[in-house]
Amino acid sequence: MPMKRLTLALAVLALTAAACSSRSDGEGKASAAERPAVDTARRELSQEVPGGIVVDFKDGTSKAEFDAWEPDWGVDLEFNSVEGSRTGVTIAREVGDVDAVLARIRQNPAVESAEPLRVYAVPPREALVSEEPAAREEADEDGYTPNDPDYPKQWNLRMIHMPKAWKESHGKGAVVAVLDTGIAYEDHDDFKQVPDLKGTKFKKGYDFVNDDEHANDDHGHGTHVAGTIAQATNNGQGVAGVAFEATLMPVKVLNHFGAGTSADIAEAIRFAADNGANVINMSLGGGGYSQVMADAVAYARKKGVTVVAAAGNAGRSRVEFPAAYPGAVAVAAVGPSGTRAPYSSYGKELDIAAPGGDKRQGDAGGILQNTIDPRDVSRSVYAAYQGTSMATPHVAAVAALLYAEGASGPDEVEKALYAGAKRVGGQAWTEEYGHGLLDAEASLNALGGGVSRWPSMWWALALLALVLLTMRGRERPGYFNILFRPSFLIPLVLATVGVFFARSWFGGASGVAGDVVDAAYLPIPDWQRIIFGRGKLANPLFYSSLIPLLLSFLAIKLQGLRPAIGGLSLGFAGFLSYAAWSKAPALAWMPFTFLAVPWLVVNVFICLIIARAMLRKESAV
Known about the structure:
Structural class: alpha/beta
Strand content: 5-15%
Helix content: 25-40%
Distance between the termini: 86 Å
Radius of gyration: 28 Å
Mean pLDDT: 85
């Protein structure tokens, strides 16, 4: 649609002029070399496309219907894209009296919202490409360490404790839609896939700027953002990404100037939500409030999608849209020191802070990723950028890790993100950092993919005392004799806390050895997370008395197994008791969720019966 691109280009020129005329550098005037290199000055300009309007009809409204209303309205509406017949988003250009036309349109009951068409953008950028390598840093955290040669430069990943988080999840199965300038994800015409995205999984997206299925990047911003989320990792090349086994959905909503319309973005949000995205990343903003976009964010959240957006780079106490919408996670940026970057916006709508870079320290203070050279879309570069645009994909990627670990929707994801965030100044929430600084490891732990370890052990010991107290004196083994008997104690420990030191001692293992370490690290009932995949829904066959019951039959002839089976049964009883008490996790295959607790309680009693039978003195049997 040439007219669509022409209108947007004119709006971009107006937006750029407004940005340049309103630029303020804070404390004194900074030179171009001193100003942040990328994503530097997002302004809340509320820039409107001259003579443009967007109308969002109720789902099911046909073109024939609104064509019949157009003579009374005095406009010629067209679907914004091929998705329009499903989303109901239409636009009109060259409208004379915009306010009068909108007033007439809003009276129609089939109209959900009607408003001026607005422009949102990636801000003007300077010194995009870092030709000189950043100073090399050494990885200093235990855990999974990828072999990407420039990973040591990624201070941002260690700041959010990715090495330890990677021991839990790589994001497999989660889908993240990147609504941006596109992604260099394929070889198509002049476009080339950047080398460090080879091996990354992609899901079919859409280009809402050019209205085709090739959402290629002609700017560089979107590819950089996508790299932070799911750059190919441990491939011996370049740098790493947070959720590197997640799937990316490229959705182009910003043109080669880095700008796009509220109509395109709103449709893109609905497109992503309807096509399998778990997370939507929007590193864009600055266009003011749009009801059409607000409705799209609410729609996505209702569909179970977590929407993550940049707070803005104006450096003031006002979170920009779309981050300020109630259904979005608003992200501020911090530098390598962990303090809010001077460019980062903040305010009462802020939710969380994440590494966005601070290039006052040079390129080493930026966020390094593989992207394209905007001067030549076929050329790949490694560039250090900064901005809330760079902070946002860290949060989106950790949200993907949470979905991969079984999070059921945005409420659960946000609860884990905020519970795991590192508090700043001991405060639960502040305007500058929201709930705190993103911590991937702590957020995964907060999700509660399994039952906590040590409480299960205490429950098991309490139940041991109960079992022994119910025995007659001549049947009862000595309290300390049984506790210090390795054949009893080791199975009890394996069933409640697992080999809790396995990952610390053998964390570098890979392949089959790595799988063995992962299994040993977990309590035996949670081995189902290795066998069936990690998730919030646990396999009820493992969260039951089945394993102790089957093994108890061996004790009929093999008397020497009785202490071990007794310890295992008590371990399972303690594990299941704590699971029932804490009401986590939920169980698969249950027709009603409330049946999970009764299931666990019944199986606790069966385990106790088995344990009592196994621990009775042999002479008393």
